Amino acid sequence: MIRDLEVVLSEGESHTAEFKRSPDKSLASEACAFANASGGRIFIGVGDGGEIVGTDTGNAARSKIQDTVNKIDPPLDIRMDVCGNMIVLTVPEGRDKPYCCPSGFYMRFGPNSQKLDRNAIFSFLNDEGLTHYDDIVRRDLPVSDRFDEAAYKRYLKLADIDESLGREPILVNLGAAERAGGELFFTNAGALFFRKNGEDMALRHANVVCALYKGTDKVHILDAKVLDGDVVSNIDDAVIFLKKHLRLRFVIKTLRREEILELPEDALREAVVNAACHRDYFERGANVMVEVFDDRVEITNPGGACKGITAENFGSISIARNPVVAAMLHRISYIEKMGTGIRRIRDTARAAGVAEPEFELTGFFKTTFRRTGADGEPIGRQSAANRSPISMGERKLKVLSHLEKQVRATSTEFASLLGISDGRVRSLLRDMASEGSIEKVGGGRYAHYVLAVRGQSVANRSPIGRQSAANRPSAGDGAGAPPADRRAAVEAFLSDRGKATAAELRPILGLSDGRVRSLLRDMASEGSIEKVGGGRYAHYVLREKR
């Protein structure tokens, strides 16, 4: 008898448990989904509510089940146990992902198995480190078209490569191009370094967006710049943007005064290089963001930490999401040593006497530098003695209230809502999950949290002993009509840039995808902006500028 059977049946279907009354045709897809996720068990002879209804456990029935799961490719070692009048299949997490069955590829998300579409399969392969964006040959991007001679010659000079070796051998040896069908084509890495990008839709997601805000939130934009050059130029120009908007102080040690940036330039440059090098280039809906606030600098890239990097080993091991890009940057000394970037950022900050930067690893990878005033003290930070901390109970209330309104949220969203670090918010969410008030669904970049008990208000739930919803302070998530200043931010950004996609506006506004789309629909219906194109090519312009 399975030891935890009673507990599993009482808790219902989950990320690791599936109930089936009989072994139907979906059995292979359910097992495939578990293998592609973190493993799980399929209980045959159990109804949706967890009640045992029984099933045929004879040799013929078990042989048929075995034939069904044997259709999974590559082969998977699935254990079959007879437990009374039930059959239990134990599916391990696969070692040779991705797994497929005759009807396609499947992944387990919470209590459901979902078929992966083309984009989801690409994302899955990327997350598992089974494919790399930068070494894909682009047969739609011949080297002869829009080759950036200036960027190429600059790179050769930085890398100390003799141009007389010939363009094709140099590009091929760098991993920047490959010959196919008698023509030389860029790889994605080569296009990022040596192709004139500009408004080219093929590489527009590789742009770096820089923004200066008034205050500490993303409302009033004082300056914005979209960098659409090659990788090396974008890195350099992003650092120039930061130096332009950060304060200088002057120290006189000899006859000449020394100019010192409020945040160390080497640490800022390293963070920008990391963002450009390790971002998820398969994610076409987001850009690297370099943002300056009154109290901090944030450098963010899509993709989060690579698979295999955890909070415990972060900064001590190196896994390159884009190995060709990393090697090319290493060749020109923009990366000094593989795996030393995070340590160098921390060491440089300490040596400069500023606060160590904060790192967030989930969903998006974010490096936050706390700015300092003229006195060298962090801006907007009270001393520990004068700070009025939010109690653990209040934070849990905010989490529950937010989930009641939004249904689901990620740890990154909670970190922003609560104003605490990524590590502390993960600890809080683990505690709440163990208490039974919330539940974690999915893993990796797909992980999010939901209320563990649906259909009850926060006031009627009892794990923490909280207030009624009527007396509880608002979570401050800005539900309802968007404020005028967000509309002004959209108009200011479009005025500066000319056009933008919803995905490009999302990090500027600090809103979810759904709320950004809702805001843009409202503004379009009011006539202040206009949507141009559809699908992946959709973007927005000021109506009078079209």
Shape: globular
Structural class of the helix and strand makeup? alpha+beta
- Counting DSSP H or I runs of 4 or more residues, the number of helices is 17
Report the average pLDDT across residues.
Answer: 82
Which strand order do you get reading across the main beta sheet?
Answer: 12-11-15-16-18-17
Largest sheet: 6 strands, mixed
Segments where pLDDT lies below 50 for 5+ residues? 381-389, 453-482
Instruction: Give the radius of gyration.
Output: 27 Å
The helical percent reads: 25-40%
Distance between the termini: 70 Å
| Total strand segments | 23
Strand residue content: 15-25%
Structural description of this entry:
The chain is built from 17 helices and 23 strands. The chain has helices spanning 5-11, 27-36, 59-69, 118-127, 149-159, 167-174, 188-194, 231-245, 265-278, 323-331, 341-352, 392-406, 411-418, 422-435, 484-497, 502-509, 513-526; strands spanning 17-20, 40-44, 79-83, 86-91, 100-101, 104-109, 112-115, 137-142, 177-180, 183-187, 208-214, 220-227, 248-252, 257-261, 288-292, 296-302, 358-360, 364-370, 408-409, 438-441, 448-451, 529-532, 539-542. Strands 12-11-15-16-18-17 form a six-stranded mixed sheet, with helices on both faces. Helix 9 (265-278) runs antiparallel to helix 11 (341-352), helix 13 (411-418) crosses helix 14 and helix 16 packs across helix 17 (513-526). It is globular, with a radius of gyration of 27 Å. The model is unreliable at 381-389 and 453-482 (pLDDT under 50).
